[in-house]
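JOB MANIFEST
job_type = single_chain_structure
chain_count = 1
residues = 228
[input]
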Amino acid sequence: MREEIRKSLLEMGEKKLAEFSGRLIPGAENIIGVRLPELRKYAKRLAREMGEEALDGEDIFYEEIMLRGFVIGYLRTDPEHRLELIRGFIPLIDNWAVCDSFCPTLSFTKKNPELVREFLEQYLASEKEFEQRFGVVMLRCYYINDQYIDSTLASLTAVDTGQYYSSMAVAWAVSECYIKYTDKTMPLLENKSLDPVTHNRAISKICDSFRVSSDEKNKLRALKQIVN
């Protein structure tokens, strides 16, 4: 069955897209060049028709890893078992694209916020770059809301952001927290609760938003830190 899945992916591949993606996604290897909407559509069909059998076998291509993550998100299964499948998938995440496409697929989180939030703690506290990013992107996707904003901000300030993709993920999440909950997020920036590089990245991302006024942007730029 793995060979059939691989054959289908190869048939969907586009050489130019593969070359473009290879330049855009550091760390990704063996890219076929399958468009994301087509990959999601195929994953939904596999999850519906094959269930967990679609997860059998080893992955060779980038799209196979991406597909595996999508199938895990689309399967019909109980939350606890899905978390076990997610736990097994996370070590396969070695670039930003797999991480950032996988997390929005885990929409079961909306019905199980406490269970998933507890599950994320181990990854937010991890020393591994893409485990950290997974935890942070999950917070950005599902936990910037009235119920969780305080704990989300606390978790973001606690992440070890010494690695690039962790830092960028935290900056991105903080920028969204600011746009949705300015009053709660501003003290984090005023108190310089993030490391200087991530702090400056967060401000830059906020200032990129059309939803922030020019006056606000000027105040935020004044908070930027000098980085040695």
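[summary]
The chain has a mean pLDDT of 96.
The first helix runs from residue 2 to 12.
exit_status = 0
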